[in-house]
Amino acid sequence: MAQRRAPRIVVTVMDVAGHPDPDRAARRNGLYLDAVARHGGAPVALDASADPPARDAAFREMDGLLLSGGADIDPARYGQAADGALDVEHERDELEAAAWSAAETRGVPVLGICRGLQAMNVFAGGQLRQEVRGHAGPSWGMGPAHTHPIRAVPGTRFTRILFPSNVGGGVLTVNSYHHQGVGRADLAPGYLAAAVAPGPDGDLVEAIESRDGPFRMAVQCHPERTESTPPAFERLFAFFVDACRGPASAR
To answer: CA angle, 158 as apex, 8 and 173 as ends, to 5°?
Structure first.
């Protein structure tokens, strides 16, 4: 029997050359690529410096898309003036908007992490809270991660993945590196909240998933940072990579 080809998964990452600490940025990028590779995927790193032909080729050949963490999204993309957003990266916004459009057109699975969750929500018509109190800790590599509990919502696909023997869900302690977030009222129409966390200004959505259609899922924490992430999140990466292989009938 012929061995199945590893699914090609485009991973949007930071432009290392434009980062004040290129070495740390490269190591952060590498964590996403490693998470895809250790579950059998073939990661294709793409940053904002990639020229149009390289982007087009990557989007045309991708079997899946991972939108990773990074700086804030331009509030103009969700109809707001800047009121808490910091270090907006317009080039990253453009790259990921194009990647999202290609994924929608081709119907490939998409996983979002931190900024990736926020980007997916915005691209699908939702909004963001530009400043969330109490969720931003030391930057990765600059000290122990800030953590907080999240509760998985019973009956969601996210909960079935992380708690396969308990579809009623449960509580997990996750890392927290974000100062923006999504409230229940900010959700895009096609998504539902798959995990939530209490906040001083009301519940925050810590995981989202699509109501129907192709696989769309995202988490606000950083599960690629395994030193501060529950092992259950490895099942999320495994499920995503497997979804990128395509329907079982097409394998």
So the answer is: 105
